[in-house]
Amino acid sequence: MGTDIWGKIQTKLNQEFGQDAYTNWIKPLTLVSTDARVAVLQAPTAFIGNWVARNYGDRIVALFAGEGLAVDRLEFKTGAINRTVAENNATPVVTKTQIPSISRNKTGLPGAKLDSRCTFETFVVGKPNELAHAAARRVAEGGPVSFNPLFLYGGVGLGKTHLMHAIAWEIQERNPEAKVLYLSAEQFMYKFVQALRFKDTISFKEMFRSVDVLMVDDVQFIAGKDSTQDEFFHTFNALIDQNKQIILSADRAPGEIEGLEERIKSRLQWGLCVDLHPTDYELRLGILQSKAEQQAVLNPNVEIADGVLEFVAHRVSSNVRVLEGALIRLFAFGSLVGRQVTLDMATECLADILRASDKKVTVDEIIRKVTDHYNIRMTDMLSPRRARSVARPRQMAMYLAKKLTSKSLPEIGRRFGGRDHTTVIHAVKKIEELRSVDNQIAEDLELLRRMLEA
Ligand SMILES: Nc1ncnc2c1ncn2[C@@H]1O[C@H](COP(=O)(O)OP(=O)(O)OP(=O)(O)O)[C@@H](O)[C@H]1O
User: Fold this and answer.
1) Are 58 and 86 in contact (CB under 8 A)?
2) For the chain, which domains are there?
3) Residue 80, burial from CB neighbour count under 10 angstroms (0-12, 13-18, 19+)
4) Alpha-helical segments (H) within 249-387
5) Nearest-CA neighbor of 41 among 8, 12, 82, 1?
6) pLDDT digits (tens, 9 = 90+) for 393-432
7) Ligand 1 centroid vs 324 CA: distance in angstroms?
């Protein structure tokens, strides 16, 4: 019966979306089962599963209902990969929960599943993330506990979760017996609340205190949640006392998380706090090239013209998730049109993403924020004055303009009272140098960057 229904649904999808979409995406799918309101579909590749989930997931769920079969979600199988890709309210957006996951955790701990694609091998290293990567590697290699806790922080979609998963895979690879527990702070709270509800806090405590490595993602989530913070604090201390490794991540440095108790902030700073900086052009291009190679294996017929990846790296935001979404879209587009994806086609296909990226930070905004921050006058910022009280903020603003906008060096120079591009190069170098030796500069820079990117 299920096969008949699937045949009917496929026919309807063919009528609604046309022959090309049908042949490329719908026809390769086989219905495996429809138990417990979950329809399991077999897809030849994870890419096809992803694409169908995002683009046709809602419609397929509705068509099942039209055939009198209540389905709440779709699950796609691709060989050994078993993943949930579409809830009946799924939107066509790549989200973390849509990442295919395979649980290789044999410890029986109730953590979140690890994404098999997030390993050190697939993590592209560049200047903005090299320290975080090196620290993550060191922790994953084990040996005497060196950085405990390791605290990774940075803006949205810069690779914190990827690095945490990579550490977990590496530790499990090196020591399959290690009890590694990875979960989000939200899951930590949820489990704690459940334990309270079922009066089972003893098992909760025992379970968390029995792990060798505890990894908690998005720690900022527990800010302002007093009982959870309290429990987290005790778990943290118990594990540190036993010399067990703790790895945490958050969207900002511990000291900047409002609503986080001071005692926790100070504990978090015991170990090593490393920042993943917004990506620069080189890192974006490296990530695109690496991900394009992976996509090319899944889509051997798609050809991306020279210069397209460079264009995307220039124009698309510093958030890697957005970058990845843009690339997947280009490959999907290429496989639909069956021709080489040219620069013009890419511009058209990514128009909304490019518009959103362009809206980002402007040089004027940077100048305004920096003058406010240092309490100097705009006229001084743009004047020829060379006094350090003015020159340093000016260099800072130039540095930020270079890093956060796609403006060229001469353009930036012009915006700062008609200066030459070599002055901008000098400013960028100076701030690069200072940020590693002068804590105040590093902090100011971080604060300004966050304000501008907020
Ligand atoms: N350096 C990198 N190399 C390869 N892929 C990367 C890199 N950085 C990020 N990614 C990819 O970008 C996506 C977003 O990364 P991730 O989920 O780790 O970000 P995050 O910092 O945890 O973001 P959030 O703050 O939203 O939790 C993932 O698919 C990840 O694999």
Assistant:
1) yes
2) 2-92 (3.30.300.180), 127-276 (3.40.50.300), 281-358 (1.10.8.60), 363-453 (1.10.1750.10)
3) exposed
4) 262-268, 281-298, 308-315, 320-337, 343-349, 351-358, 363-374, 378-382
5) 82
6) 999 999 999 988 878 889 899 999 999 999 999 999 999 8
7) 9
From 187, 321, 323, give the residue whose CB has the most ligand 1 atoms within 8 Å, as the site to mutate. 321
ipTM above 0.95, yes or no: yes
Any ligand 1 atom below 6 A from CB of 325: no
pTM, entire model: 0.62
Written as six digits, the tokens of 175 are 């020591």
Q: Which of 222, 169, 153, 148 is nearest to 192 (CA)?
A: 222
Please state, as a whole number, how many other Cβ atoms lie within 10 Å of the Cβ of residue 213: 22
279 ligand 1 Cβ < 6 A: no
Q: Chain centroid to CA 256: how far? A: 20
Cα of 181 from ligand 1 centre, angstroms: 20
Query: How far, in Å, from the CA of 275 to the mean position of ligand 1?
Result: 13
* Residue closest by Cα to atom 13 of ligand 1: 321
pLDDT tens digits for range 266-275: 888 888 999 9
Q: Residue 95 CB: number of other CB atoms within 10 A?
A: 11
How far is residue 267's CA from residue 238's CA, in Å, rounded to a whole number? 12
Beta-strand pair 245-250/213-217: parallel
pLDDT at 102: 31
State the closest ligand 1 atom to the C-alpha of 283, by its place in the atom list counted from 1: 1
Protein residue with its CA nearest to atom 10 in ligand 1: 159
d(CA 189, CA 229): 9
Name residues whose C-beta falls within 8 Å of residue 6's C-beta, 6 or more positions apart in sequence: 30, 31
The secondary structure element, H or E, covering residue 237 is: helix 226-241
127 close to ligand 1 (CB < 6 Angstrom)? no
Using the atom order of ligand 1, give the atom closest to the CA of residue 129. 1
Burial of 199 (0-12, 13-18, 19+ CB in 10 A): exposed
